[in-house]
Write a structure and sequence with these properties.
Distance between the termini: 92 Å
Number of strands: 13
GO molecular function: 5S rRNA binding; structural constituent of ribosome
Largest sheet: 6 strands, mixed, barrel
Radius of gyration: 24 Å
GO cellular component, one term: cytosolic large ribosomal subunit
Keywords: Ribonucleoprotein, Ribosomal protein, RNA-binding, rRNA-binding
GO biological process, one term: translation
Strand order of the largest sheet: 1-3-2-6-5-4
Structural class: alpha+beta
Strand content: 25-35%
Organism: Acer negundo (Box elder)
Shape: elongated
Oligomer: single chain
Length: 257
């Protein structure tokens, strides 16, 4: 007997089949090297700080040129090509605005600025509506004045989706208020503030959470314990310590006597 189904019934049936297929084949889809990467529940950059960095081309370099650029409120900068996190090329000399870089560094913090992707637009001059080149970049190096913290120069890396970039990802420590060791009067010995990973450009973490909530006296967290996206590759040894709960400070022990 031929059964005629309404369009709605056919649509619901198709949705159920697609849902079943997506659940049963999830592992296969995730392992597809051509599939676009996503953060998959891991920490993603805060859109609040998404900003296009404006730049103008610079025809020459050198100490005198750099001093002149800084004098007029610009930061001499360079953009490199870096696909595998190790080699440079395709150099582009530019200058960016001192006030914009200073604002971003102040809002984010230096380490967080260096682990965040930005769109960069190169224009003939600041205030022009014409765009010579627009590229996604990762700040790689940032030099600040030792006295004023004014940005002196910035190195950027091009960050297309296929790029693998070496990034010092900042660590954010959480759970100090409930850590058994810290509640007993011990203290946190922070050994690392950043950890180096080779990251696909599309999933560079803005930071990595370090959970201290179950850490007791004498216990430590090593790099291999950090929970990160499986596509990230740790550059340093997985056994290298990140932090440790250490016994009471000597000054605290004297006070208790």
């Amino acid at each position: 007997m031929l059964i005629h189904r309404s369009p709605l019934a056919k649509t619901l049936n198709l949705c159920l089949r697609l849902r079943f297929f997506s659940q049963s084949a999830a592992a296969v889809i995730q392992e597809d090297p051509l599939a676009p990467l996503s953060y998959d529940g891991f920490t993603r950059p805060d859109p609040k700080y998404a900003e296009t960095i404006l730049a103008i081309p610079r025809t020459s370099s050198g100490t005198k040129i750099s001093k002149l650029e800084r004098k007029v409120g610009r930061v001499p900068s360079i953009v490199f090509e870096q696909d595998d996190g190790q080699h440079g090329g395709n150099k582009l000399l530019i200058s960016v605005q001192t006030n914009q870089i200073r604002k971003l560094v102040n809002h984010l913090g230096r380490s967080f600025f260096l682990s965040r992707l930005f769109d960069l637009e190169v224009r003939p001059e600041f205030g022009s509506g014409d765009v010579i080149e627009k590229v996604r970049v990762l700040p790689r190096l940032l030099h600040l004045h030792s006295g004023t913290d004014a940005p002196l120069n910035v190195t950027f890396l091009r960050a297309p989706s296929h790029a693998l970039l070496k990034v010092n990802v900042p660590l954010v420590f959480r759970g100090e208020d409930v850590s058994p060791g810290l509640r007993k009067g011990s203290y946190l010995n922070t050994i690392k503030r950043t950890v180096k990973f080779i990251c696909p450009a599309d999933i560079i973490p803005p930071y990595i959470d370090v959970d201290l909530s179950e850490l007791d006296v004498g216990q430590k967290i090593v790099m291999g314990d950090l929970k990160v996206h499986p596509a990230l590759k740790l550059v340093q040894s997985k056994d290298e310590p990140v932090c440790k709960i250490t016994g009471a400070r000597a000054s605290d022990q004297k006070k208790s006597k």
